[in-house]
Structure prediction request, 406 residues.
Amino acid sequence: MAYIVVSDVHLGSKVYDLHNRDMFCGFLNWVRGLENKEETIKCGTKDVTIHKPENLVLLGDMLELWDPKDGDRDNVIKDSIIPFSILSDMNCDKIYVIGNHDDSLGELEDDVNNVVLPNGKKFTIYDRHYPEKKADTATGIHIGKKSYFFLHGHQFDKEQAILAWVSDLIGESWNPLGWFQDLFNIFDTKKHWKRNFLIFSLLFLAGGFFWSKFLPPVLQGPLTFPGSLSSAILPVLSGIILLFFIIKRFYELSAALFVLFLGSWLFSNQSGLLAIIWGTVTGYFALGSIPGVVANTQRKFYNMFKATDKTAEQVITDKYYNKDKDTIEADIVVFGHTHFASSYGPNPDTGNRLFINSGCFYGKDKNIDGKMRYANTFIYIDDGGAYIMRWQGQGKIECIEAFPTG
Ligand SMILES: [Mn+2]
Prediction:
């Protein structure tokens, strides 16, 4: 049984350099080719043979849905077409574990569950980790003599804890910045948020100035019901028709009628009508610009707390990882998220588990405090052990670290 694990490709990202996408596609093609030709490479003194994997684990942040290039999610689709075409053609099952930058795909967990591709291979999405939890503990899967557990790793971030807590509470993924990102991807907002923000500010300030002088009488108008019975006939009739439409489930019609009804009532009061128009227009420009402001500042906000470039050791020892809360039952925990292919443990800090980080296909190699943080890394696992490896293009592989178990 062989597994290959990759994470953090961030397809569609702003700082995404096409070089990484090309490296990733080249890598996928190489994995596809393992079917016909196994590859033997040197890991220290040992020769390791890389077999065709039965499973390919995509360990999160494959897509950049939080902060795509120009804030435009179309760029994610553009960057994904080629890699996903190759993926669908590969002769192995695909396991997509959701990360934080692609967490909205978690909603697909029930839909994309053992979906069989034309070549007979399966594609499955796991919202949290692989394998899934059974009862209270999550037991790893056995490959050779060891058990392995796969998760993206943002779960170890202190800063993500509040999001996770609220998500657990309401029973669905909660991500306020994702909500702004959704709003930002409305065409008018995406293209004109700066202009819209200017208009919103002007309307808001002018309106504020105006209503501060006229607010009391304005509120009196729309909030006082018509006094005489005769003037109540029209609203009552409209109400009955409205109720009829709601019962018949003509919701759009009901909504339109309600607006008309409200409008005609307010029409008798000029300032009330003006307030409605002002509120609607100002609201439109607020929605058409504030998500742009948020979407364009969130990167700076996130960079203040980001866990990127942390080694597996830093994740554990900086208390990003809390072993007392850990319910994972596995010898080896494989995670990504920090973009730093590295390992830590087993020792008491790690609950006597080995932690291996799959690194990334993102950016360039970088020397960080004397340690190389490589781009374009992956993990190969088979019965003989686990290996952190580095794709250098053109079929060139280098072994970074080996964890023989056999
Ligand atoms: Mn991540």
Q: What stands out?
A: Residues 187-294 form one domain. The chain has two domains: 3-157+307-404, 187-294. Residues 60-61, 99-101, 152, 154, 337 surround manganese (II) ion (CB under 6 Å). The two ends are 13 Å apart (CA to CA).
